[in-house]
Specification:
0% helix; mainly beta; five-stranded antiparallel β-sheet; globular
Length: 327
């Protein structure tokens, strides 16, 4: 049986031995809500293929017994309505949510592992506890999952079996125990934050270079034909547009963060946001981007919230209006 709103099934989430140990600790007696550390602001959004909801990391307090007073803290994945900004708690764990192409499953990282879960309803937000699956059954951390266009593979970054602990990008078959490391020359720098194009056989990622920091690269899904797309500052969180023709990414300079959009060959770079904007991802039709406004140095209107804008940077609008509170 599925319970509306919170997304819990009738059995406890923590009965599943595959859930990371951090999610089984530091929770209220009798509560099924985890208390692993997560930021209270929104971060790492991913737009559902249906276009109506956005999944993102978030933490907020909730009234779970409906007495008018918030009584617990919900850390994990929330759903945000792309038009109204309405929020719903979905998964009480995990980060860096990634929708599969069909919009039926989320992949998240949590406790150092990659998990997948079936989302059975978007409104109200519900998931199937029994579907929670640990994809990375090895003794090494893994982060930032991304699905292939056919939904058959998930790529992520990990330092699994690297003697120096350097991160690279690995792809694993969703329903089979097949795992392939696509990283080449890890000794020349880590590979992180991969994003798999849904229409081309390419993965865009950031790569660390000793002489210049983090740059955006693109590679085919066998790890060949690498192409460097950026060459100045530090660059993070690249995301393909739905048609694979453009890439949005976060460009970092000292005390500055901007969202930049470029062609998938690295040409025609355009800064499309003001300072302190990051982690943009595309709407399913490619017409909009959702991003995070986060000023680490001072309080500004809309700080820590999700914003949306046209893909050319016009018509910026604050989407969420989260006000931090405690139970």
């Amino acid at each position: 049986m599925l319970i509306p709103l919170l997304g819990f099934s009738s059995c406890s989430l923590f009965d599943n031995d595959q859930i990371p140990e951090c999610l089984k600790k530091d929770r209220k007696p009798g509560s099924e809500i985890s208390h692993c550390d997560q930021p209270v602001f929104f971060s790492r959004p991913d737009w559902h293929p249906g276009g109506v909801w956005i999944a993102a990391e978030h933490a907020d307090s909730l009234d779970t017994n409906h007495d008018g007073a918030n009584d617990t803290w919900f850390n994990g994945i929330w759903l945000i309505h792309a038009e109204t900004g309405k929020t719903q708690p979905l998964l009480p764990f995990g980060g860096a949510p990634a929708w599969n192409p069909a919009g039926t499953h989320l992949a998240v990282h949590g406790g150092g592992g990659i998990y997948t879960v079936e989302v059975t309803s978007l409104e109200p937000a519900q998931f199937d506890t029994a579907s929670i699956t640990l994809l990375t059954d090895f003794d090494a951390p893994a982060f930032f999952p991304t699905w292939s266009g056919d939904g058959e593979w998930i790529a992520f970054d990990t330092n699994y079996e690297d003697p120096n602990g350097t991160y690279g990008i690995v792809k694993k078959k969703y329903n089979e125990n097949i795992m392939i490391d696509i990283t080449k020359n890890r000794s020349q720098g880590a590979w992180r934050h991969g994003d798999w194009s849904k229409f081309t056989d390419r993965i865009v990622h950031k790569k660390y270079r000793v002489d210049s920091g983090w740059d955006i690269f693109m590679v085919d899904t066998n790890g060949h034909n690498s192409a460097q797309l950026t060459s100045n500052g530090d660059n993070h969180f690249p995301k393909f547009s739905p048609d694979g023709k453009k890439i949005a990414f976060t460009h970092q300079m000292p005390y500055e963060f901007h969202v930049v959009v470029m062609n998938s060959d690295g040409s025609n770079k355009k800064v499309i946001t003001n300072n302190h904007s990051r982690e943009a991802t595309w709407s399913p039709d490619g017409e909009q981007l959702v991003y995070v406004l986060l000023n680490l140095y001072e309080t500004v209107p809309g700080n820590g919230q999700l914003w949306v804008m046209d893909s050319n940077g016009k018509n910026k609008k604050q989407l969420t209006n989260f006000v931090p509170s405690t139970p």
